[in-house]
Amino acid sequence: MTAAPAGAEYALLEVFIFLALAELLVPVAHRARLPAIVAWIVLGIGLSNFALGGVLNAALGVQLFGANTYVLLFADLSVVLLLFAAGLGTGVRGLREAGAAAIGAAIAGDLVPFALTVVVASRFVALDTALLLGVAAAPTSAAVVAALRQLEGVGATTAGQFLVTTAALDDVVALILLSVVLTIVGGHVDVLSVTGSVVESAVAWLVLLLAAVVVVPRLLRLPALREARGMPFLFLFVLVAIVVALGFSAVIGAFIAGLAVAESLVADRTRELTEVLLLFFGALFFVVIGVQFDAHDLVMPALVGAGVGLAGLAALGKFAGVYGFARSKLRDPAAARAVGVGMLPRGEIGLVVGAIGITSGAFGQTELGAIVLMSLITTVAGSWAFRYAAAGRRPVAGPSTPAPP
């Protein structure tokens, strides 16, 4: 038997420690009136290699705590489950009810913070760097939105469905925007290549969505497939593999799979199984966000200033882009505000853009650290603001939506 790669032997132990401590924190966070997401991120920061985790690593003589590749893979599984659950809770009906307003909110919610960030950042850095910073500031973290929707009990409301649908569409818009910016940064600034990139991505997403919604429910009518309790998860894994192969984010495939299974005869049973899985793995993504944050960055004024400024531009642009469309759909100003603040958290795609910027040489450590700090600030602030907006108004929804029990 070959030896395990460095870091692999402790990855599972690290994950179990994270999950156990995250579960223990839930009642503590509840008593302290903190969103569980915030408590999980703080836990991750404390157990990172840059804080208490580093001290424990040195004391134990092993590299136990840290965001190695294996831990990040477990965190990706947490994201996939969160978005699968969001799709199951929304269904095609929720997607259809969100309609053009959700599409408009997703597009404006990305383009407004992108443009605002590029205009401001281009005064301090090169245009290529400003364009990539704009893309990093644009997309909402669909995983955070899905968790907020579940944890704050607004999943059955019109606003909850509108929020998660907009966040999922936001990911599609963000990936198209990233593709366009990479085309421009690469020097191919012609209308044909940019338009082709946009159309290709949009058509691929739409075709995959329609195919999944038509095919998966029909397959799950077959007795042999319907009785296999794990079959919906097989479709989940297949769709995630397809979208990743096409260059999309895994969360898009997970959301589409959830939408498709929600229209099948096994939807209720699959929701129950997914809820059980999320009880164990739902917190991991947020703990790992904290683990990746280097607390030493907080003593660098330039990085902190860039991160706070980027977070402000991202939050202002997102709320401005989303609120009008949410207001037109929900008609209740408080519900529209809740959707607007619920879209503030940033995460996965922004960090991907950071990695691209470092690899291409467009970013230095200051820009990368600013993106990580921006993701942390918007996630914590957005979670807190959403809880405040949703408190005592369970529906955070339009006036026609009854409150869930």
Written account of the structure:
With 405 residues, the protein is mostly helical. It has a single domain (69-390), classed as Na+/H+ antiporter like fold (Up-down Bundle), CATH 1.20.1530.20. It is built from 17 helices and no strands. The protein has helices spanning 8-31, 36-46, 52-60, 69-121, 127-137, 142-151, 158-185, 191-219, 223-227, 231-245, 250-262, 267-281, 284-291, 301-330, 333-342, 348-360, 365-390. Helix 2 (36-46) packs across helix 13 (284-291) and helix 7 (158-185) packs across helix 15. The longest helix is centred in the first third of the chain and has 53 residues, at 69-121. The protein is globular, with a radius of gyration of 21 Å.
When the domains are counted, the total is 1
CATH-defined architecture:
Up-down Bundle
Give the N-to-C terminal Cα separation: 54 Å
* CATH level-3 fold name: Na+/H+ antiporter like fold
Number of helices: 17
Mean pLDDT: 84
Order of helices and strands: HHHHHHHHHHHHHHHHH
Q: Which percent range describes the beta-strand content? A: under 5%
Major sheet: none
- CATH level 1 name: Mainly Alpha
List keywords for this structure.
17 helices; 405 residues; disordered C terminus; 0% strand; mainly alpha; Na+/H+ antiporter like fold; globular
What's the structural blueprint in terms of helices and strands?
Blueprint: H1 8-31, H2 36-46, H3 52-60, H4 69-121, H5 127-137, H6 142-151, H7 158-185, H8 191-219, H9 223-227, H10 231-245, H11 250-262, H12 267-281, H13 284-291, H14 301-330, H15 333-342, H16 348-360, H17 365-390
Helix pairs in contact: 1-2, 2-13, 4-5, 4-6, 4-7, 4-11, 4-12, 4-13, 4-14, 5-7, 5-16, 6-7, 7-8, 7-15, 8-11, 10-11, 14-15, 14-17, 15-17, 16-17
